[in-house]
Amino acid sequence: MARAAPLLSLAAGVLPEFSPEQTVAAAAAGGWPATGIWYDPETWTPATTIEVRDRAADAGIAILDIEVIWLKPGTDDPAHFGAIDAGAEIGARNVLIVSSEDDAGRAAAKLNRLGHHAAAAGMRACLEFAAFTTVGSIASATALLDAADCDNLGLLIDPLHLARTGGSPADLSSVDPGRFPYAQFCDAPARGPPPSDVPEIIREALDLRLMPGDGALPLDDLLAALPLATPLSVELRSAALRNSHPDPTDRAQALLAVTQRWFTA
Hints:
- It is built from ten helices and eight strands.
- Strands 6-5-4-3-2-1-8-7 form an eight-stranded parallel sheet.
- The model has no long low-confidence stretch (mean pLDDT 97).
- By secondary structure, it is α/β, with parallel strands linked by helices.
- Helix content is 42%, strand content 15%.
């Protein structure tokens, strides 16, 4: 049965070897209505901001998110606020945050500050959980967001991470729907590496994701559990996709075609 496709965005992780400028160009040429952008504070310059912003505006595509802010133990990292500022300048709607901060109180305080900074910039700040971070489940992510006490903080659901942390789409029913400004989308086998094998879990997340329909994740159930028409960042990190489509525009086109086919099947 055909499904109504929401706003689909090319995740930055689909093109990890290409620059932000090349990502926008590939998304536009590949027919995507939106894209995500990778922020590297070591290489991002004012020229990057201008090029990304102008290419997206000229092509008429949205910047769904900028990533990634990775919280680490210790004090605030100025580059995290720089990522939000860059996102605001290019028109990004959301900023993606993950955490390896091992102190829950510090993590909550950092999220509070980032959430308010993003709000002032006109963006949502969204926390993603995964088995290889210190926020290893939807329950712990929700608890951390509650502790952070900032209405501008959202929760980013990745179907692979949800499955590999023992969660299911039914778990979303306990979360305020307003916490889901967007979600990620991909497929994978129903069963993955054992929870104890963190390196293999990371390898799967970075290299072994499957095209929608090629795996067995409960994607229909996930979409039904999210608010209607939630934008989707198609997070297809795949060595096979990279190897079979080395050209960025070709890769973007191939992924969009398969994703759209899944929605119309």
